[in-house]
Amino acid sequence: MSKLLDKARKYEKEQVEKIPEELRPAFHLTPWVGWMNDPNGFSYHDGYYHMFYQYHPFDVRWNTMHWGHAVSRDLLHWEYRPVALAADETYDEHGCFSGSAVTLDDGRQLLMYTGVHPSAEDPKRDAQHQCVAIGDGVDYEKIPQNPVIRAEDIPEGDDRIDFRDPKILRFSDGTYVVLTVNLSKDGSGQVLMYRSKDCINWEYWKVLASNHNRYGKMWECPDFFEIDGMWYLITSPQFMLAEGYEFISGNGTLWLDGTFDEESGEFTEAGRHRSIDYGIDFYAPQTVLTEDGRRIMIGWMQNWDSTEVRGEEDLPWFGQMTIPRELFVRDGILCQKPTRELDALRHDPVIYEKEAFSGSREFDGIEGQILDLTVELSATDPQQVFEKFSLHFAEKDGQYTALDFCPKDELLTIDRRFSDVRHAGIHQRTALVSGSKTGNLKLRLILDRRSVEVFINDGEKVMSAMIFAHPQAKGISFHVEGEAKVNITGYQLV
Ligand code: FRU
């Protein structure tokens, strides 16, 4: 084992003993200690789901990237394994960036990541290429053939600096295909494909999809999969321009659909595209196919545009993953719902039906910070739809996070301005909920101490956000201007 890997392993083991469990969410994955960004190598291997992650154990801020590692049988209870990769070779001395994992036919696990190193052409910049490490689920050896895909393998004329985030797929004839993103001649992102029989010797194949400056600039962290006969390309574009309520400025996420032919490698876009998440904190998702055929996605529950907005607690970790979400397609739209494994964590249901009210109300038993809460809202009189509905949660002493819904404009806003945060920054995001002028809206909130994930109308859209709340901020209250009716189901989780 290299000195750097050994140092990181010793450090995380020492530090983790000092972190009480209550400082972490109950069922979301956090770094063992220090900083976490993108999910990496999300895969199923040897009876476990494996989640690696962009990791800097030594600080709660981004720095030289390692790969952290955790495994789970049910996607919710995670068990840490020692840090898998450190930046310990000259070809990755500035970091082991994002990538993916596959199980080889001989049962070994292969990790493919982006090695970052000082550029020979421009020493002020880092260059990127793709590298491989192979292991047994705990320890990984970087192979002597690294880097396995070099800057020279990038199409002629394209930028040679931004070239990263390999996502390996396996086609039905056994061929491995890896998607990597780079900056094309037009200054925006594209997804390149390389092919291999053994995951080590790669040849350039073709461009899968090009941004053509439509959605931001560079695309990061691609993934590509089929659901019900259509293919979905997901990426995280940098430098987006806001577009109505669909896209936000800065770092966003995107899915595009189309048809794909494995033999020719031709992806023909069908023209539908949307953000993957409409909240404040979401980026760089990855998916895995479960043995029972579900496509599950987990994202980083942070966004580069909001990482400097932190709460008042001094935590020994920063960054967490979202809950696993099952992807499905309804009316051509890629939708998400909390993975069904979460149902096993629910207990003590509290149910209210057809409760009409105006002004403010609380409901006995509907409270908590680790909660699965569904609210079905409607107007008591369809001729007189209420003006505004607000749900306040993580509430205590006048501090709360809110979901505000205005049926007239069909807009739902998440707002954490009035929570326990003393820093300015992005605290609100708004999503358009088409067809909600009637006042009908269904919200499912998954709360886990410092985060909320809001599934709108059975997963048509999702909003994810970190929230800033006192550990005792367990209050939940309902507010309406006009009159509304609610059905509520609350479960405590874990
Ligand atoms: C996305 C990203 C990736 C890169 C990694 C570095 O969040 O910028 O493109 O591989 O983070 O940590």
Features of the shown structure:
single chain, 494 residues, mainly beta, Tachylectin-2, Chain A, Jelly Rolls, 2 domains, ten-stranded antiparallel sheet, five-stranded mixed sheet, 3% helix, 51% strand, globular, binds beta-D-fructofuranose
Word description of this protein:
It is a single chain. The protein is an all-beta fold and 494 residues long. The protein has 2 domains: 3-342, Tachylectin-2, Chain A; 343-493, Exo-inulinase, domain 1 (Jelly Rolls). The protein has one helix at residues 3-16, and strands spanning 34-45, 48-56, 66-72, 78-85, 95-103, 109-118, 126-135, 140-142, 163-170, 176-183, 189-196, 203-210, 219-227, 230-237, 254-261, 266-274, 283-289, 295-300, 317-318, 325-330, 333-338, 346-361, 370-379, 388-396, 399-406, 411-415, 428-432, 441-448, 451-456, 461-466, 475-493. It starts with a helix and ends with a strand. The mean pLDDT is 97. Beta-D-fructofuranose is lined by residues 37-38, 54, 65, 97-98, 114, 164-165, 220-221, 283-284.
Quick recap:
With 494 residues, the chain is mainly β.
Distance between the termini: 38 Å
- The CATH top-level class label of the largest domain: Mainly Beta
Structure summary, number of beta strands: 31
Q: How much of the polypeptide forms β-strand, as a percent range?
A: over 45%
User: Which cofactor or ligand species appear?
Assistant: beta-D-fructofuranose
What is the third-level CATH name, the topology of the largest domain? Answer: Tachylectin-2, Chain A
Reported for the largest beta sheet, the result is: 10 strands, antiparallel
User: Can you say what the CATH homologous superfamily of the largest domain is?
Assistant: Glycosyl hydrolase domain, family 43
Estimated structural class: mainly beta
Named at the architecture level, the CATH assignment of the largest domain is: 5 Propeller
